[in-house]
Amino acid sequence: MIAGNDANFKCGPGYLCAAGSESVRGNEQCPIDNWCVDGTQTACPAATLSTVGGIEAAIECADCPPGKICGSNSVGVIDCPAGKFCPGKVLNVAGVSSCTAGNYCPAGSKNELKC
C-alpha cells in the first residue's frame, strides 16, 4: 500500500513511519528492545529484551536469560554477581538469590553448584 494522500494509511507492524512515508515499511525497522504497531514504538516490558529489530508485539520480547540481570533491556545485561545466582527474568540485584551453605556460585550462575 502506498501512503500518498490516503488518510487510512497505517504503518506496518514492526516498522516506524515518519510523516510522508510512502511504504508500510516506513523509514526504519522498529529498534532493538522495542516493539512497534501502527508506527508507535513501545519498550519491551521490564526484565525482557530483544536483540533484533522489527518485532511486532510485547510477547516477542524474550525473558532475561538465566545467569544474567537485565536492568535496561539488552543494553544493561550483566552477569549475575559471584556468590549469587539468577534463575532468569531478573531485573535488578534485588532479584538475585544468595548461594546457600554447601554450594558455590561463580559470576553468571543460573543456579547453585554443589561444593
Give a description of the structure.
By secondary structure, the protein is mainly β. It folds into two domains: 49 residues, no CATH class; 47 residues. Helix content is 0%, strand content 30%. The chain contains no helices and twelve strands. A two-stranded antiparallel sheet has the order 1-2. The termini are far apart.
What characterizes the major β-sheet? Answer: 2 strands, antiparallel
Strand order of the largest sheet: 1-2
Would you identify the regions where 5 or more consecutive residues have pLDDT less than 50? 1-8
Compute the number of strand runs.
12
Helicity range of the residues?
under 10%
Q: Calculate the terminal CA-CA distance, rounded to whole Å.
A: 62 Å
Number of domains: 2
Proportion of residues in extended strands: 25-35%
From the spread of the alpha carbons, the general shape counts as rod-shaped
Count of helical segments? 0
- SSE order in H/E notation? EEEEEEEEEEEE
Overall pLDDT, averaged? 85
What Rg do the Cα atoms give? 20 Å
Topology at a glance:
Layout: E1 15-16, E2 28-29, E3 34-37, E4 40-43, E5 48-49, E6 62-63, E7 68-74, E8 77-79, E9 84-85, E10 97-98, E11 103-104, E12 113-114
Antiparallel strand pairs: 1-2, 3-4, 5-6, 7-8, 9-10, 11-12
Keywords:
single chain, mainly beta, 2 domains, two-stranded antiparallel ribbon, two-stranded antiparallel sheet, 12 strands, disordered N terminus
